[in-house]
Amino acid sequence: MKRIIFSGIFLLTFFSAVTISSCSSIAHFDQVAYSQMTAVESDALSMMDKATEDYAIHKQEVDVISNRIQQAYLYDKNRPKNRITEEMWKLIMDPDGHLYGGFIARWKSEGKLKPVFIAEAKKKVQENFDRIAQLESKKIKS
């Protein structure tokens, strides 16, 4: 629970810092980055719904979505002045955290997850994907 709160506070702090930063200190809006993020968010949340079933059944699908998340991260990582978004992606992917990466690691280790846990985890994962989307959408459009 402490890690979830820390992740949310960490992302909120980054998001707030961006809002008050000058436009020269952050990347400009990128439609490709925004589109990638929203598509992978939808797929990740849908995949999480399947965690009531055995992980082994969905391993291939999980790998595809995890690779797409990694691609979105690498795209954002290589954009200039985009460190905040890069750090937000790292939190989402962290297998020791309480967002998507940690959810997948837990599903893999436990085999199946309970619907109540899935619902709560999805809320946190969605909030954090949405923070990336909000950050991107508030960037200056060229």
How is this structure best summarized?
With 142 residues, this protein is mostly helical.
Write up what this structure looks like:
This protein has 142 residues and is mostly helical. The chain has helices at residues 2-20, 31-49, 55-77, 83-93, 100-110, 115-137. Helix 2 packs antiparallel against helix 3 and helix 2 (31-49) runs antiparallel to helix 6. The chain is elongated and about 45 Å long. Mean pLDDT is 88; it is low at 17-23.
What are the salient characteristics of this protein?
single chain; 142 residues; mainly alpha; 0% strand
- Rg: 15 Å
Could you describe the largest sheet, including whether it forms a barrel? Answer: none
Shape descriptor reads elongated
Give the N-terminus to C-terminus distance in angstroms: 40 Å
> Strand share of the residues?
under 5%
> What count of helical segments does DSSP give?
6
Helicity, as a percent range:
over 70%
Structural class: mainly alpha
In the predicted model, the low-confidence regions spanning at least 5 consecutive residues are 17-23
SSE pattern, N- to C-terminal: HHHHHH
Number of strands: 0
Task: Compute the average pLDDT.
Answer: 88
